[in-house]
Amino acid sequence: MLYRKIESLLEEHLKSDSKKILLIDGARQIGKTYIIHHVGKKLFENYIEINMIEDSLGDRLFEGTKTVEDFYLQLSMLAGDKMKDKENTLIFIDEIQAYPHLLTLLKFLSQDNKFTYIASGSLLGVTLSQTTSIPMGSIRKVRMFPLDFEEFLYANGLSEITIYSMRKKFERSEALDESMHNKMLDLFHKFLLVGGLPDAVNAYLETKNIQTIRDIQDEIHDYYATDASKYGDEKKLKIRRIYDLIPSNMENKKKRVVVQSIEDKRGKTFQHYTDEFEYLISAGIALNVQAIANPTFPLIETTGKNLLKLYLNDVGILTSILYRNNIKAVLNDERSINLGSVYETVVASELIAHGYKLFYYDNRNKGEVDFLIDDYDSLSAVPIEVKSGKNYTVHSALTTFVQNEDYHIKKAFVVSNERNTKQNGKITYLPIYYIMFFNADSSSETPQL
């Protein structure tokens, strides 16, 4: 079984006295149902699971359920013998977005306190925004993502003590020895091919067959695109078009979304596609990085609404689209191949999965800085530059950026394939795999240097 960090969060919440119902949000095919099933069966004698999409396509038992009593009655038809008491009964409501009224009902199920509940779904941001009565105070919504690089390392047999030791070196801004660095870089490049979708990771571990892995990634990619098209007839083609444009946007010098390319129409602005962007981001299949007009802390205060970069939620899907079965493009560091968009996708997915809101800075005269994050310790913005090539010290835009006294930049990072860590003024150079230790939820936003 794949190790998932969220397992400890699930166990902690379900063992607590909290009356809030845990609501796990995230894209399809990232392992939400599997990990909840695993934890639920482990902790509770009586485990009841209801998939609301399956119900909506079948008996529709819960379609008109509006009261707690009606919910219990319908549930008893499926699992009446398992409905015992709160301490030993967990009811898992899967794909809850299929019936938005059940989100409102969660408040009353929580207040009734008869059983223990957990729910999951996708598009919960959109669904909650369209729900007439949001169950504020009764739910705890947590976002789940595909496996991150650290989880991929555990899947490949690295021990807890090994990763702990690497974390300590990261915190002290120390490099790994040559052999360990080569091993980590090899695993990182394999992560670029495999990505973090559980089915793809399991296929890699079991078969080491790139064709098998690509078939899984292609199927999920097509599923995401088709699923996104269910938004509505008027919007579905635009949603699909924006989603399909993400890889090609990543290959452009400026990776931001070009609105005119969506429908090839002049005069279109971001406001014309607000719902489409919201769908893709809320569904978890696209990761958003917003432009900043004035890169000072806190970054959210100067977010630009008309400039946006989108990344695919899984780097394996991206390398499948770009390179198909040719693993040499990624593993052999081919000179003719620019892996910039692939490296950026990993960094974006790692940072977002670790709790950061992402921004970027682009100035026509001063150039672009790949990512900006807030550092609440120093009360300043922290720029991060991603380098996939050998000239990792060449970054004129970043150099200009950190020297601008108006921005109050105290530290910046460049991540690359280089093993050694070093500091040059405000800029610290780190190996690319150390990005797995950046964590907004820890006591420190970024490493103390």
Could you give a short description of this structure?
By secondary structure, the chain is α/β, with parallel strands linked by helices. It has helices spanning 6-15, 32-43, 52-57, 68-79, 101-112, 124-129, 149-155, 160-171, 178-194, 198-207, 210-228, 233-251, 260-263, 274-282, 315-323, 328-331, 340-353, 396-403, and strands at residues 21-25, 46-51, 89-94, 116-121, 139-143, 286-292, 303-312, 359-363, 367-375, 380-386, 412-416, 422-424, 427-431. The strands form 2 sheets. It has an 8-stranded mixed sheet with strand order 7-6-8-9-10-11-13-12. Strands 2-3-4-1-5 form a 5-stranded parallel sheet, sandwiched between helices.
Give the helix/strand layout.
Layout: H1 6-15, E1 21-25, H2 32-43, E2 46-51, H3 52-57, H4 68-79, E3 89-94, H5 101-112, E4 116-121, H6 124-129, E5 139-143, H7 149-155, H8 160-171, H9 178-194, H10 198-207, H11 210-228, H12 233-251, H13 260-263, H14 274-282, E6 286-292, E7 303-312, H15 315-323, H16 328-331, H17 340-353, E8 359-363, E9 367-375, E10 380-386, H18 396-403, E11 412-416, E12 422-424, E13 427-431
Parallel strand pairs: 1-4, 1-5, 2-3, 3-4, 6-8, 10-11, 11-13
Antiparallel strand pairs: 6-7, 8-9, 9-10, 12-13
Helix pairs in contact: 1-2, 9-15, 10-11, 11-15, 12-14
